[in-house]
TrEMBL record:
InterPro entries: Kinase-like_dom_sf, PknG_TPR, Prot_kinase_dom, TPR-like_helical_dom_sf. This is non-specific serine/threonine protein kinase. It comes from the Bacteria. SUPFAM superfamilies: Protein kinase-like (PK-like), TPR-like. Its EC number is 2.7.11.1.
């Protein structure tokens, strides 16, 4: 299709022939086909092939009634019977119109019978004249058919309105993370108020000129709304099987409307996003009032209508899942905003985001009033006005985020309170988006979407109590588990008091603040940092070596934050050195011989000072203004406060991080630890549970929950949390070690453990050693001793109740299970085996105690050996004649008897 005839190219005929041969069924409109460069015969072949396909609908709009192609079409494609066939079709539609109008009259509806009679008169006149000038009558027949369809559609719509009011169908959402309820308007053409009936041509009836050009293709049904720059009408597109479209007409009385309309046409035709209403066409209004924009029609409910349903608690907009719907609205709107903000052709803002400009249609959303779309800092209308926009509505991307935060907050305020940390995270996300200072808001729509999507997963996980995993956007994995020792084998000091009795597991303390500071997740390096590539390839396993290596690198914020964390790790090493026996000097403070050696306490102070200096320098490089809104600054300040043992101050710093990035795991994990250390167990449990529910691989959160449950006397809940740590987590072995300790532990002052408890503990130890990665023989020995002590207590308890423990044990753990296991992992089957095994275990534990010469270590060795001698069974037997006396087995270190 060309605006003017162009020279014919030889390849055109071949191309048209190929298209004609492969042409599918289509619905298409050809404008000015007489201007085509190809010959009329070639175009006719293409049209003939398209028309031969099933379900083909073709509309050809000629400007020249004497065009050769038009005459050729009439002679060879339509045939001489075509005018009569069109007349018969129009007569059938007029008959149907009479029937509808008669029914309307009987029901008291206003009918336009006079219009139908006039159309019938026009038809008869055309039938008489068509024989002499069939081509001249073709256009008049086409217009007559359009006018008949106008009246028939209007009459049917009026009849439908009388029969059934407008209905809205809403179906419950699916189970997917981002599923929304299905919202659909049943019969949107019944929209009230309807405009005046489209008039028959050629009368100048009421409103006849308003859509003069549009009437040929579009039948206006009703007025939908008034937007920022005009009105929006619902119409049928006759060229596309009466598809519903929206026609937008700019206000001719607005002095800026024409200029705005021109800008809007250029922008809107280029915009193509699934969550923004699509502009199909722009047509001229004959009265000069301006263009009509033909847009995609999206039927549904505005977010203001959704808000009203939330207030009324109408299903499915009731209950805790409403918060997830609100988050999904935000994520999808942010996707559209990110598209507008980052367009290569021209960066745009939506500008007028409000509850009435977002439609929930089907199971998605549409931004429907795009009149206010404009370039950055251009004036325009606003419903919600950001503080920086001023009276003329100039704004950038931060203004769009402010408007979105306001819209979603309005929905959230209408929703029922669910009282979870997820709700708090959602409110914090929206609070950051609506901060008065644009610099304090999210930097981009993409950044806000990342946090909102993480909050969506948090809401879902807490509602369903099931994992909804996604990796962190800003933090790496935790280096070491914050297990507080629960994930390690029992310490040797457990046996320092002497005696072979089973000890209470008791409440478990969180790790020391200095350990937590070193083990909390490290942030991902900023990709814009000059050192980013080098930091990506850096190993963090040798803090001292890495400090030496990076000393000569260019100082950038990310490098200084890394050095801050490395100094905190070195401070932990110095603090641990304080507890070692007879600490030796670790370095010298100068080169002179008179300089005194630096003790671990000196080293601790030096490393803490260096960590603080690195963090301050990073803040200076970022800049005072930016640093006030950069979450990395309070994050590292919180680590420094923990390293100084100032947990209350650390909690305040991590709270600021949580307010800046509410969807992240790391600040919640840090706050859970701080609350736990400060004795706020309920708050600690809330933060730990929020992290663990969303990502079971977060072993530190699982351990935090386990400690909380043990303190409440709920060991099974602690086991449930630890069992959820998945096999691919680096915290799996520690979690399974803790599980063995809890299964084998006593949680009451006067316990009566059962064989069932022992069986579970034994099976947990067997899995840990054989399948879960425990390779430390010393740790295995301590766990085994702890388990054997439980078995002694179980045997004694069973006897008191008159049960034979050994036969019941054989039922629970058949002897066949022992065949493929090493002796150390076999279950003792007799009391003698049990006592000998436990005695030998105590002796092996004594070998694990350091030979430091300290009185504390010597006392522990003595206590363990006393346990070994005390528990070992004494056996007396007759010595056969001729045999030499033997030393008792416990003196000779004898082996345990077979059987």
């Amino acid at each position: 299709q060309l605006p003017h005839p162009t020279p014919h190219h030889p390849d055109d005929e071949a191309l048209l022939a190929r298209i004609a041969a492969d042409c599918p069924g289509m619905t298409a409109a050809f404008v000015l086909p007489e201007a085509c460069a190809s010959s009329p015969e070639a175009v006719l072949a293409l049209l003939r092939a398209a028309r031969a396909r099933r379900r083909a609908r073709l509309l050809l709009a000629f400007r020249d009634p004497r065009a050769p192609l038009l005459r050729l079409l009439h002679e060879e494609l339509l045939g001489p019977e075509w005018p009569a066939a069109v007349g018969d079709r129009i007569a059938e539609r007029l008959t149907e119109l009479h029937r509808v109008q008669r029914r309307l009259s009987e029901r008291g509806g206003a009918a336009r019978a006079d219009g139908a009679e006039e159309l019938l008169v026009r038809l008869e006149r055309l039938r008489r004249t068509v024989r002499g000038d069939p081509l001249g009558a073709a256009h008049e027949l086409f217009l007559l058919e359009l006018d008949v369809e106008n009246l028939l559609l209007a009459a049917r719509a009026r009849e439908a309105r009388l029969a059934a009011p407008l209905e809205i169908s809403i179906e419950a959402a699916g189970d997917g993370l981002e599923d929304l309820p299905w919202v659909q308007v049943q019969g949107p053409e019944l929209t009230e108020p309807a405009p005046q009936d489209a008039p028959p041509r050629p009368p100048a009836a009421e409103g006849g000129s308003r859509f003069a050009e549009a009437e040929q293709q579009y039948h206006v049904v009703g007025k939908l709304a008034s937007g920022s720059y005009g009105q929006v009408y619902l119409a049928h597109d006759r060229a596309l099987l009466n598809r519903l479209v929206a026609l937008k007409r700019h206000n001719p009385r607005d002095p800026g409307a024409a200029e705005q309309a021109a800008r809007e046409r250029l922008r809107l035709v280029e915009i193509n996003h699934p969550f923004i209403v699509k502009v199909h066409n722009a047509i001229l209004d004959k009265d000069g009032a301006g263009p009509l924009l033909v847009m995609e029609f999206a039927d549904g409910l505005t977010l203001e209508e959704i808000r009203q349903r939330i207030l009324r608690r109408e299903p499915p907009f009731e209950g805790a899942r409403v918060l997830e719907f609100i988050a999904v609205y935000g994520v999808r709107i942010l996707d559209a905003l990110h598209y507008l903000h980052t367009r290569k052709e021209q960066e745009l803002v939506y500008g007028d985001l409000s509850l009435n400009n977002v439609l929930h249609c089907g199971d998605t959303i549409k931004l429907i009033d795009v009149a206010a779309v404009r370039g950055f800092d251009e004036p325009g209308p606003t419903t919600v006005t950001p503080p920086e926009a001023g009276p003329d509505g100039r704004m950038g991307p931060a203004g769009d985020l402010y408007c979105l935060g306001h819209v979603l907050t309005s929905l959230l305020d209408a929703a029922p309170a669910v009282g979870t940390l997820g709700e708090r995270s959602l409110r914090l996300t929206l609070a950051r988006a609506t901060r008065p200072d644009p610099a304090g808001r999210f930097a981009t729509a993409e950044e806000m979407a990342g946090q909102l999507h993480a909050v969506l997963r948090e809401l879902r996980s807490l509602r369903l109590n099931e994992e909804t995993f996604a990796p962190s956007l800003h933090f790496g994995p935790v280096a070491d588990t914050l297990d507080g020792g629960l994930g390690s084998a029992p310490p040797l000091e457990q046996w320092a008091g002497g005696g072979s009795y089973k000890r209470l597991l008791g409440p478990q303390r969180p790790p020391a603040p200095g350990d937590a500071a070193a083990d909390l997740p490290p942030p991902h390096p900023d990709r814009k940092d000059p050192n980013w590539k080098r930091l990506q390839r850096t190993s963090y396993h040798d803090p001292k070596g890495l400090l030496d290596r990076t000393a000569s690198w260019e100082h950038t914020p990310e490098l200084l934050f890394l050095r801050c964390r490395l100094h905190i790790q070195e401070a932990r090493a110095a603090r641990h050195a304080l507890t070692q026996p007879r600490p030796e000097p670790v370095a010298f403070e100068g080169d002179g011989p008179a300089e005194r050696p630096r003790t671990p306490l000196d080293e601790l102070a030096r490393q803490l000072a260096a960590a603080g200096a690195a963090a301050r320098k990073a803040g200076q490089l970022i800049g005072e203004e930016r640093a006030r809104h950069d979450w990395r600054v309070p994050w590292h300040q919180g680590l420094i406060e923990l390293a100084h043992q100032r947990v209350e101050q650390a909690r305040a710093a991590f709270t600021q991080v949580y307010e800046d990035i509410p969807g992240e795991y790391a600040p919640k994990l840090a706050l859970g630890y701080c609350h736990e250390h400060l004795g706020a167990s309920e708050q600690a449990k809330e933060f730990y549970r929020s992290v663990w529910c969303r990502n079971h691989a977060q072993g530190s959160a699982a351990f935090g929950l386990a400690r909380m449950h043990l303190a409440e006397g709920l060991p099974q809940d602690a086991v449930d949390a630890l069992e959820g740590v998945p096999p691919d987590s680096r915290h799996r072995t520690a979690a399974r070690t803790a599980l063995v300790r809890i299964r084998a532990g006593l949680h009451e002052a006067r316990p009566e453990p059962s064989l069932a408890q022992f069986t579970l503990a034994y099976q947990a130890l067997l899995r840990l050693v054989e399948h879960e990665g425990l390779t430390d023989p010393a740790a295995e020995e301590r766990l085994r001793a702890d388990l054997l002590e439980l078995q002694v207590l179980v045997v004694e308890s069973a006897r008191r109740t008159g049960i034979d423990p050994w036969s019941e044990l054989a039922d629970r753990l058949p002897v066949d299970l022992d065949h493929d296991l090493p002796v150390r992992l076999r279950v003792p089957r007799t009391e003698e085996q049990l006592l000998l095994r436990l005695s030998d275990s105590y002796r092996r534990l004594a070998h694990q105690v350091p030979r430091s010469g300290r009185a504390k270590d010597d006392a522990l060795i003595e206590a363990l050996l006393d346990n070994a001698h005390h528990i070992r069974p004494t056996r007396l037997r007759h010595r056969p004649p001729g045999t030499a006396p033997r030393l008792p087995r416990w003196l000779s270190g004898g082996r345990e008897p077979e059987g």
